[in-house]
């Protein structure tokens, strides 16, 4: 099983700032089968990025994904008030697994 | 619009079974794989298994083998997830989630549409 480790656990930022979230895999993720989801309290997760860097339908371009192999990054270029949430990475190259999440909170 | 609507919250005793439903609308039900993912309170996400609504074939995460059964009813565009021999650790929100790709290609195991979630509480 591929273990995903996300860092930091919590990111305290102000609206308008840039957020950089990391996801590290215990072994190489094949074909960059890496996705990112956003989850707000009481809601289901929402797909943001798949294939490491492709934005899902309707996702604003302030969200971008990058990386390959074992190291992946989600960047939010300028935080909007609605972006404060928990973010999960997920690998789907083999039996799917999720990271433990990074909480982006208002500073 | 594309949506998945799940059944309501359940409270079960240890050892019992629970069956959660997920009704799809806004797209051709048999064209996309469906998954089940759960989330224990305050915890992360855990994939449980997949069903192909077209033929009904399934594949389950090893952790749930022997305890989970996923089925579908094409006449009502509904998938079901039944979990048996419930224990307190099964207390969680259970989500159905549609696969990113259609059934004409191998499943992607990434999830573009999610249901609203069903809270299952296991308590004596």
Report what the structure shows:
The complex is a heterodimer of chains A (107) and B (124). With 107 residues, chain A is mainly β. Chain A is 0% helix and 50% strand. Chain A has strands at 4-7, 10-13, 19-25, 34-39, 46-50, 54-55, 63-68, 71-76, 86-91, 97-98, 102-106. In chain A, the strands form two sheets. In chain A, strands 2, 4, 5, 6, 9, 10 and 11 form a seven-stranded mixed beta sheet that branches. A four-stranded antiparallel beta sheet of chain A has the order 1-3-8-7, with no helix packed on it. In chain A, a hairpin with a 5-residue loop joins strand 9 and strand 10. Chain A starts with a strand and ends with a strand. The model of chain A has no long low-confidence stretch (mean pLDDT 95). With 124 residues, chain B is mainly β. Helix content of chain B is 0%, strand content 52%. Chain B contains no helices and eleven strands. Chain B has strands spanning 3-6, 10-12, 18-25, 32-39, 45-51, 58-60, 68-73, 78-83, 92-102, 111-114, 118-122. In chain B, the strands form two sheets. In chain B, strands 2, 4, 5, 6, 9, 10 and 11 form a seven-stranded mixed beta sheet that branches. In chain B, strands 1-3-8-7 form a four-stranded antiparallel beta sheet, with no helix packed on it. In chain B, strand 9 (92-102) and strand 10 form a beta hairpin. Chain B starts with a strand and ends with a strand. The mean pLDDT of chain B is 96. The interface between A and B is medium-sized, with 20 and 18 residues.
